[in-house]
């Protein structure tokens, strides 16, 4: 059975592009947001002037500030609010959902209590609904301009995977499938940390070799962390891993990269966040991952260095330089284990 009706929860840039793709694919879509002016603008001017200015949205897309009405008839519900708000909004709709309504998270963050990813939060609240995660190299502003992009739908439920592939695939968006929900979701959260580090490196005018070293060692570090938590490292070779890491570490369209860039220019974390005015999940993710790495004794020099810069005022140059002074170690530790060099 394919998807004919959908809801998107969240009025930010990514919620808006997901809703717009669904509308472009002739799926009756309601996008829920709390800002009435933005909802009116989407309905009347077909534009989200706050989060996606200048992008013409499909006129068939409906926006609503009534959460329960928005999800009532939706066969698929895409959850696209920042991680701090996912529990709150999903708890508000949960008592009203039918068990056949699928919930798909697009949120790339972690809940600190229990170190839960968003699909785990949703599963706790809605244990009987089909659950999936959408994650990949998907800068909202490019997709809004209908530039070509691809993503991953991860779920243990093959019907959900096929339905979401069909619902979101179009001339400018391609959806690949994965059954590694945890790996896909974890990589989407972790790469935001390394986008911040890449922002430091760019702002400091460091070389192209340095940038490549940072991205590649970021992949080594995030896979090491993921394996320690039981994820499949092969998932990190796909779009949700390498793909998303590369785009967010290289593009000024990434908000996490922009936070790192501002700090690399000498601004404080507070100044960088205020100037951004949008969510940069990597700042909180960095705190939670650093605590987890310390708890489990996982070697993560980039995470430790970035934490010192953001929260203890260390010099951002020291993060890349720190890689030059560690113990001699292995390139790909799944091929040559660190203990065998
Ligand atoms: N933008 C991107 O390129 C991509 C983003 N993502 C992920 O998607 C998630 C959402 O990001 P994005 O759309 O970019 O965020 P934005 O910063 O663009 O917008 C956040 C949206 O969430 C709303 N919101 C925040 N808190 C609440 C709440 N408690 N209740 C209701 N609405 C709330 C805001 O509403 P208000 O304006 O009223 O404050 C705003 O509409 C993040 O986890 C991000 O990592 C994933 C892929 C790509
Ligand atoms: O996840 C993203 C692209 O895939 C968006 O990254 P930012 O949240 O850093 O903008």
From TrEMBL:
The active site is at 191 (proton acceptor). It catalyses: sn-glycerol 3-phosphate + NAD(+) = dihydroxyacetone phosphate + NADH + H(+); sn-glycerol 3-phosphate + NADP(+) = dihydroxyacetone phosphate + NADPH + H(+). GO terms for biological process: carbohydrate metabolic process; glycerol-3-phosphate biosynthetic process; glycerol-3-phosphate catabolic process; glycerophospholipid biosynthetic process. Sn-glycerol 3-phosphate binds at residues 108, 136, 191, 244, 254-256. One of its GO terms (molecular function) is NAD binding. It is an enzyme of class 1 (oxidoreductase). Catalyzes the reduction of the glycolytic intermediate dihydroxyacetone phosphate (DHAP) to sn-glycerol 3-phosphate (G3P), the key precursor for phospholipid synthesis. This is Glycerol-3-phosphate dehydrogenase [NAD(P)+]. The lineage of its organism: Bacteria, Pseudomonadati, Pseudomonadota, Gammaproteobacteria, Oceanospirillales.
């Amino acid at each position: 059975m394919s998807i004919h009706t959908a809801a998107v929860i969240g009025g930010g840039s990514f919620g808006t592009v997901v809703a717009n793709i669904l509308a472009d694919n002739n799926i009756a879509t309601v996008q829920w947001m709390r800002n009435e002016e933005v909802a009116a603008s989407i309905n009347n001017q077909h534009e989200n002037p706050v989060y996606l200015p200048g992008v013409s949205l499909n006129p068939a897309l409906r926006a609503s500030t009534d959460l329960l009405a928005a999800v009532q008839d939706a066969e698929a519900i895409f959850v696209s609010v920042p991680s701090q708000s996912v529990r709150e909004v999903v708890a508000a709709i949960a008592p009203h959902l039918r068990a056949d309504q699928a919930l798909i998270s697009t949120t790339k963050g972690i809940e600190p209590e229990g170190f839960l990813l968003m699909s785990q939060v949703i599963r706790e609240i809605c244990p009987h609904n089909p659950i999936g995660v959408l994650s990949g190299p998907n800068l909202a502003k490019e997709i809004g301009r209908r530039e070509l992009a691809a993503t991953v739908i991860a779920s243990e439920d093959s019907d959900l995977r096929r339905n979401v592939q069909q619902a979101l695939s179009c001339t400018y968006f391609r959806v690949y499938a994965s059954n590694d929900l945890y790996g896909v979701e974890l990589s989407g959260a972790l790469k935001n940390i390394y986008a911040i580090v890449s922002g430091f490196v760019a702002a400091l005018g460091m070389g192209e070799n340095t940038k490549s070293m940072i991205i590649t060692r970021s992949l080594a570090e995030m896979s090491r962390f993921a394996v320690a938590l039981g994820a499949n490292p092969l998932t990190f070779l796909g779009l949700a891993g390498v793909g998303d890491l590369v785009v967010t570490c290289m593009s000024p369209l990434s908000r996490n990269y922009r936070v790192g860039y501002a700090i690399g220019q000498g601004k404080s974390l507070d100044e960088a966040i205020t100037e951004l005015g949008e969510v940069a999940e990597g700042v909180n993710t960095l705190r939670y991952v650093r605590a987890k790495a310390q708890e489990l004794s996982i070697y993560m020099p980039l995470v430790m260095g970035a934490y010192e810069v953001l929260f203890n005022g260390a010099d951002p140059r020291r993060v890349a330089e720190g890689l030059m002074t560690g113990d001699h170690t292995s390139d790909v530790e799944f091929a040559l284990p660190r203990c065998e060099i």
